Amino acid sequence: MNGDVPIGQLFSQLVDDGKRYARAEVELYKAKAADKAQPVKMAAIYGGIAVTLALSAVTALLVGLILALETLVGPLAATLIVVLVTLVIAGGLGYLAYKQVLEARR
What we know:
InterPro entries: Phage_holin_3_6 (IPR009937). The protein is mainly α. The chain contains 2 helices and no strands.
């Protein structure tokens, strides 16, 4: 019966059991995290490929616009027009992003 075991030894066993339980919980959460990491990793890969393809398509569109405008205004003017319009759009989007950051900081 446990009445013969000193209280110090019981307390030591309780501490050891608590440590083992804590380690088991940590291992469980590590396993859960590893299980969820694979889909997140694949989502990041697919997203990166999608962004790369989208940027390639935008580049092709801009080159096409330059080639189409070239017949009307010449190659240099067509390039300048497309670059300036693209920079204005990028600047506008950047400004909207800046406003959203300011709003989020409030």
